[in-house]
Amino acid sequence: MGGGGDRAGCVIVAAVQEIPIRGHMIRLGQLLQHAGLADSGGAAKQLLLDGAVTVNGEPEARRGRQLHPGDVVTVEGASVRLT
Fold first, then answer.
1. Beta bridge partners of 55
2. How do residues 36-47 score in pLDDT, each as one tens digit?
3. In order of start, what are the domains of the chain with their CATH numbers?
4. Pair type for strands 72-75 and 78-82
């Protein structure tokens, strides 16, 4: 009596939010706050220390990492792409 069918094994892909930046570069810590992925610089630092952040699919722990248009940052399942 499921009605909707069995969804086991399905992968749900969330939309990637496009984030425009000024200039050609932004630092990771700044982006986390600008995109609303972290409430503060301290929260951004903690996310990085916890290993919760990836850049282009690779784990990243450097708050000062330079990001450029086209880079994709993911935090706990939420992804943003720089434009």
1. 58, 73
2. 999 999 999 999
3. 27-82 (3.10.290.10)
4. antiparallel
